TrEMBL record, chain A:
The active site is at H226, E295. Keywords: ATP-binding, Hydrolase, Kinase, Multifunctional enzyme, Nucleotide-binding, Phosphoprotein, Transferase. Substrate binds at R225, H226, G227, E228, S229, E230, L231, N232, R275. This is 6-phosphofructo-2-kinase/fructose-2,6-biphosphatase 4a. InterPro entries: 6Pfruct_kin (IPR003094), 6Phosfructo_kin (IPR013079), His_Pase_superF_clade-1 (IPR013078), His_PPase_superfam (IPR029033), P-loop_NTPase (IPR027417), PG/BPGM_mutase_AS (IPR001345). One of its GO terms (cellular component) is cytosol. One of its GO terms (biological process) is fructose metabolic process. In the C-terminal section; belongs to the phosphoglycerate mutase family. One of its GO terms (molecular function) is 6-phosphofructo-2-kinase activity. It comes from the Eukaryota. It comes from Gasterosteus aculeatus aculeatus (three-spined stickleback). Residues 4-218 form the 6-phosphofructo-2-kinase domain.
UniProtKB/TrEMBL annotation, chain B:
It comes from Gasterosteus aculeatus aculeatus. CDD domains: HP_PGM_like. In the C-terminal section; belongs to the phosphoglycerate mutase family. This is 6-phosphofructo-2-kinase/fructose-2,6-biphosphatase 1. GO terms for cellular component: 6-phosphofructo-2-kinase/fructose-2,6-biphosphatase complex. The keyword tRNA processing does not apply. Keywords: ATP-binding, Hydrolase, Kinase, Multifunctional enzyme, Nucleotide-binding, Phosphoprotein, Transferase. Substrate binds at R274, H275, G276, E277, S278, E279, L280, N281, R324. Synthesis and degradation of fructose 2,6-bisphosphate. GO terms for molecular function: 6-phosphofructo-2-kinase activity; ATP binding; fructose-2,6-bisphosphate 2-phosphatase activity. The active site is at H275 (tele-phosphohistidine intermediate), E344 (proton donor/acceptor). SMART domains: PGAM.
Length: 484, 487
């Protein structure tokens, strides 16, 4: 077997209330899932809300409230149970255990649990004493919490501050000396400073890098495609054509739109394909070209119409519809490959503030899926029409999306998920690729990536493997059908 | 990973005299980058783009007692940054001192009350700073690594004000270590061989160097959480067991921190090999996705024998997604990991052609490639420069790992080798990476020991030297002069 399985990782948040633990948990979970690491968060507060239907007041959290303590301990246990289920039976690779975990005693319990089950533990502590940050935090996410639906703003804020107080006396932060054998990152003052101890493996290293690059400064990210291109109008995919007159019109409208937005210090990014660059040129501002923002490489299908693909490569066409995320064009790429190559873009987007990304349909779908936490199944079918700008503004635990159509007509390039008709089994029997030594080798272009390059377990495209898809390689299928 | 600040930056001149005709895009012939046609301002490469859109230059300033790995880190970081395309240079103040004071007598030179020596040392630091300024302003340098102890707040203040006056960013890298074993190993690896101790025996050298360290200790002021809270720095404790990171300002500092947090000093070896000879290799065709030839299969078996003979602890094996590397790894009978990033360079429209066919069908492209093989991008394909960007995660993971065997392809091999052996961009595409030869790289002192093992199975030669005539108008014979033989 080709796969090497890392043991699962349990990420444990640590910190007083309103220090951003849930924000970090959700964001980290979203990022890890996007890069292909099955991750789920377990918020102990949620368990508590299910157990204690109605939240009365901060008194529940008083350290001398025996009843409260019992319930809270039970909730933590229930959550850990679900963690075990997720990591050992449900194919999870990372579980984020989101709770205050402010006492060494609680953390020791978790460490023991992890040891018994063969999980690695990585602590993420958020330490912050800036009253402004804490206040903003409370306003953004606490006042709207289910705990406070029936309170007015002042009541809620006051109760929450008292709740924080309940934890303060018994808070034992992670210590350089006492906890020197643990793996952890301590985030201080919303990313001003970090203490990183004993990073054990690749996934922890990536998590640290990610956490060190995110910030909470308000900003917006604008995503749009290039203006309508010549090949778009001809119903052809890929290629490197220029803009149609309507596409150029979009460029102008985009420029006007951006001016109305009054954005300070906007960065503009494009791919290295003509159509995005032409679009950016209309803006009369500096822009940066990223090769990794290039459209998905359709390999042998480049510049074909869907009808032609159906004619020349009916099996490919069907397979793509079976699993559009993992399907790789012969001599081309898959959406899954795209996500891999877009990761540095996401990382840089996290670092930056106001950015406009002018890209392509498949690329935009991948980026959008990251921001809106869409699954691999949904990603290839996200609607990203031409001549429409999506404005993404982080808010609370998620992202506000505004879709702004710039009122310039364009063709529709969106293809819905169709009914799948072809019988793969029949096709498999008809096509094999025999080797000289008698073995049968599947077309390598179809060989699904059996192992993610980043040391995380990844489900191989089991569908293709189990159907043993073998194809007759066609030597005339060059990248550019027009050539020969 | 790409480095956006140094990607081709295009600043459109807000010049109302430019007419719309000139706004048409053209693709630069070598890099295949779309640019607005604006006469001679075309083809301006990174480093020569308009200055105000480059990041301000960055000074990385090392801090720490002697034998804490500062020079090791400086050299490694410099090598990494240059490889990913960030022009970086190291300035080792000890070197300046050795040039000023031709003969090193003993540790007394470093005594804090040695006024004469203090003057010299300060002058050396100043000279190094001047060279840093020249590197930034005249040589388009982007990062300078200032390698010295810089153990006093006073010295660091001088550097900070020097940088502030000139608009350089400063990022400190402090290495703290009190493990006597690590320090002793350090001294053994790099100090005994130093020019300072060339005429001493080991015990003398060790004694003298230990006293040298003591000279610094009394006045050592580590970076402080409180006092230095406004500065940008990383503190590395005990060779990477722990890190404290403060105020990372920008992208390059974030990359530097990530890199420093991934390197280690545990002894290990990296084995690099190409796939066994392939069917297309035999035909003299580039690219494609063919299987192994019979000789290639023999090599795979020989490789398995060789690897077993090396008795490597916990070897990881990596391949690309292409058939020929996977077939090679299969013969090893161990688990392996496939990386798409290790796929051979995409030759675009030239895939599966012979050099003769490329000359016949794309003579201009063929010539452009010979003119600048590193930056040249095949039409609808990639350049070596693109390869380096996509290999960066591989390098990062190689740094994290211990014993690894990478089974890859000629262009990939060249890029990886250039990283380990610090080869510049113009040499990289011409590094010799013959088939059926394993390179074993073992980090030692400040560099890498290389051992080459040819496994005694004949294979075609796939190495094409740069021909003398690279002009677009050359004769086909001149272009094909250096093409290796094939079927």
């Amino acid at each position: 077997s080709v796969c090497m399985t890392n043991c699962p990782t349990l990420i444990v948040t640590v910190g007083l209330p309103a220090r951003g633990k849930t924000y970090i948990s959700k964001k980290l979970t979203r990022y890890l899932n996007w890069i292909g690491v099955p991750t789920r968060e377990f918020n102990v507060g949620q368990y508590r809300r299910e157990c204690v239907k109605i939240y009365k007041s901060f008194e529940f959290f008083r350290p001398d409230n025996e009843e409260g303590l019992k319930i809270r301990r039970q909730c933590a246990s229930a959550a850990l149970n679900d963690v075990r289920q997720y990591l050992t039976e449900d194919g999870g690779q990372v579980a984020v255990f989101d709770a205050t975990n402010t006492t060494r005693e609680r953390r020791d319990t978790i460490i023991q649990f992890a040891e018994q089950n063969g999980f690695k533990v990585f602590f993420v502590e958020s330490v912050c004493e800036d009253p402004d940050v804490i206040q903003e935090n409370i306003v953004q996410v606490k006042l709207g919490s289910p705990d406070y639906t029936n309170c007015n703003t002042e009541e809620a804020a006051e109760d929450f501050m008292k709740r924080i107080k309940c934890y303060e006396n018994s808070y034992e932060p992670l210590d350089e000396v006492l906890d020197r054998d643990l793996s952890f990152i301590k985030i201080m003052d919303v990313g001003q400073r970090y203490l990183v101890n004993r990073v054990l493996d690749h996934i922890q290293s990536r998590i640290v890098y990610y956490l060190m690059n995110i910030h909470i400064t308000p900003r917006s990210i604008y995503l749009c495609r290039h203006g309508e291109s010549e090949l778009n109008v001809n119903g052809r995919i890929g290629g490197d054509s220029g803009l149609t007159p309507r596409g150029k019109e979009f460029g102008k409208k985009l420029s006007q739109f951006l001016q109305t937005q009054g954005i300070s210090d906007l960065k503009v990014w494009t791919s290295q394909m003509k159509r995005t660059i032409q679009t950016a040129e209309s803006l009369s501002v500096p822009y940066e070209q990223w090769k990794v923002l290039n459209e998905i490489d359709a390999g042998v299908c480049e510049e074909m119409m869907y009808e032609e693909i159906q004619d020349h490569f009916p099996l490919e066409f069907a397979l793509r519809d079976q699993d559009k995320y993992r399907y790789r064009y012969p001599k081309g790429e898959s959406y899954e490959d795209l996500v891999q190559r877009l990761e540095p873009v996401i990382m840089e987007l996290e670092r930056q503030e106001n950015v406009l990304v002018i890209c392509h349909q498949a690329v935009m779908r991948c980026l959008l899926a990251y921001f809106l936490d869409k699954t691999a199944e949904e990603l290839p079918y996200l609607k990203c029409p031409l001549h429409t700008v999506l404005k993404l503004t982080p808010v609370a635990y998620g992202c506000k999306v505004e879709s702004i159509s710039l009122n310039v007509d364009a063709v529709n390039t969106h293809r819905e998920r169709p009914e799948v008709g072809i019988s793969l089994e029949a096709h498999r029997r008809a096509h094999t690729h025999p080797q000289e030594d008698g073995s049968v080798w599947p077309d390598m272009a179809f060989s699904p990536r059996a192992f993610s390059s980043t040391g995380c377990t990844v489900q191989a495209s089991a569908f293709l493997l189990t159907h043993g898809v073998n194809l007759t390689p066609n030597p005339q299928h060059s990248k550019h059908p027009t050539r020969k | 990973m790409e480095f956006p600040q140094l990607e081709y930056l295009r600043r459109r001149r807000c010049d109302s005299a430019v007419n719309t005709e000139q706004k048409k895009l053209t693709q630069t012939p070598l890099l295949k980058i779309w640019v607005p046609w604006m006469g001679c301002s075309l083809n301006r490469r990174r480093g020569s783009s308009v200055p105000q859109f480059c990041n301000s230059p960055t000074m990385i300033v090392m801090v720490g007692l002697p034998a804490r790995g500062k020079t090791y880190i400086s050299k490694k970081l410099t090598r990494y940054l240059n490889w990913i395309g960030v022009p970086t240079k190291m300035f080792n103040v000890g070197q300046y001192r050795r040039e000023a004071v031709k003969i090193y007598k003993n540790f007394e030179f470093f005594k804090p009350d040695n006024e004469e020596a203090m003057k010299i040392r300060k002058a050396c630091a100043t000279a190094a700073l001047k060279d840093v300024a020249a590197y930034f302003s005249k040589e388009q340098g982007q990062v300078a690594v200032f390698d010295a102890t810089n153990t006093t707040r006073e010295r660091r203040a001088i550097i900070l004000s020097y940088a502030k006056e000139r608009g350089y960013k400063v990022f400190f890298v402090e290495s703290i270590c009190d493990d006597p074993e690590i320090i002793a190993e350090n001294i053994k690896q790099v100090k005994f061989g130093s020019p300072d101790y060339v005429d001493r025996d080991i015990d003398e050298a060790l004694e003298d160097f230990s006293r040298r360290i003591e000279c610094y200790r009394a006045s050592y002021m580590p970076m402080d959480d409180e006092e230095d809270r406004k500065l940008s720095y990383i503190k590395i404790f005990d060779v990477g067991s722990r890190y404290l990171v403060n105020r990372v300002q920008d992208h390059i500092q974030s990359r530097i921190v990530y890199y420093l947090m991934n390197i280690h000093v545990t002894p290990r070896s990296i084995y690099l090999s190409r796939h066994g000879e392939s069917e297309l290799n035999l035909l003299g065709r580039i690219g494609g996705d063919s299987g192994l030839s019979p000789r290639g299969q023999k090599y795979a078996n020989a490789l398995a024998t060789f690897i077993r003979g090396q008795n490597i602890r916990e070897l990881k094996v990596w391949t690309s997604h292409m058939k020929r590397t996977i077939q090679t790894a299969e013969a090893l009978g161990v688990q392996y990991e496939q990386w798409k990033a290790l796929n051979e360079i995409d030759a675009g429209v030239c895939e599966e052609l012979t050099y003769e066919e490329i000359q016949e069908n794309f003579p201009e492209e063929f010539a452009l490639r010979d003119q600048d093989k590193y930056r040249y991008r095949y039409p609808k394909g990639e350049s070596y420069e693109d390869l380096v960007h996509r290999l960066e995660p591989v390098i990062m993971e190689l740094e994290r790992q211990e014993n690894v065997l990478v089974v890859c392809h000629q262009a990939i091999f060249r890029c990886l080798l250039a990283y380990f052996l610090d080869k510049p961009a113009d040499e990289l595409p011409y590094l010799r990476c013959p088939l059926h030869t394993v390179l074993k790289l073992t980090p030692v002192a400040y560099g890498c020991k290389v051992e080459s093992f040819f496994l005694n199975i004949e294979a075609v030669n796939t190495h094409r030297e740069r021909p003398v005539n690279v002009d677009i108008n050359r004769n086909p014979e001149e272009a094909l002069l250096t093409v290796p033989e094939h079927v």
